[in-house]
Design a protein that fits this description.
This protein has four helices and six strands. It is an alpha+beta fold and 167 residues long. The chain has a six-stranded antiparallel beta sheet with strand order 3-2-1-6-5-4, with helices on both faces. The structure holds methionine sulfoxide.
Length: 167
């Protein structure tokens, strides 16, 4: 049974290194994509400070559709093709992490939870196929920086390595 252990004081890189180790332990022995996605969101939401939403959207045809998450109920469907919407759509269409210090300055941002002020969205790739995004929201402006970006990209890579991608 997985147990959350206290995260070390100190720099963000050390924090994410430890969180990544905890994720590897949490996902060990199970490759089901949805089960592991659910535990990834629960781990991030409960151990990363100052978040109001953490979860996945999964590619279904031309849209991203809500997957496992923690936080308030959210918008279900976000178009990617032909015209991407929101921060999630931009991440999926560009295949680049979107680091948004102030969501109110992001053209087309989709406000699912009015508490959100900052957001980071990491695209999830299986080979050259975008299969979804990892979306993290915070009520604090400029909550995320490049250390958080590297941290979440590492967690996303661990999740993808330890899970069977949907076909
Ligand atoms: N804000 C996102 C929508 C999803 S919610 O944050 C959970 C966006 O603009 O794509």
């Amino acid at each position: 049974m997985f147990q959350a252990t206290p995260l070390p004081e100190g720099s963000k890189p050390r924090f994410y290194e430890e969180l990544n180790r905890q994720l590897e332990g949490l996902l060990a022995g199970e490759r089901d994509f949805i089960a592991n996605a659910a535990n990834l969101s629960a781990l991030v939401f409960n151990l990363v400070p100052d978040l109001n939403w953490a979860g996945l959207y999964l590619m279904r045809g031309n849209d991203l559709v809500l997957g496992p998450f923690q936080g308030k109920p959210a918008c279900v469907r976000i178009p990617v093709h032909p015209a991407p919407r929101g921060v999630c759509g931009a991440a999926a269409a560009s295949r680049q992490t979107q680091l948004v210090r102030n969501v109110h300055d992001f053209p087309g941002h989709i406000a699912c939870d009015s508490a959100s002020n900052a957001e980071i969205v990491v695209p999830l790739l299986a080979g050259d196929r975008v299969i979804g995004v990892l979306d993290i929201d915070s009520p604090t402006l400029a909550r995320f920086d490049e250390d958080d970006q590297r941290g979440f990209e590492t967690l996303a890579a661990t999740f993808l390595r330890l899970s069977d991608a949907p076909s």
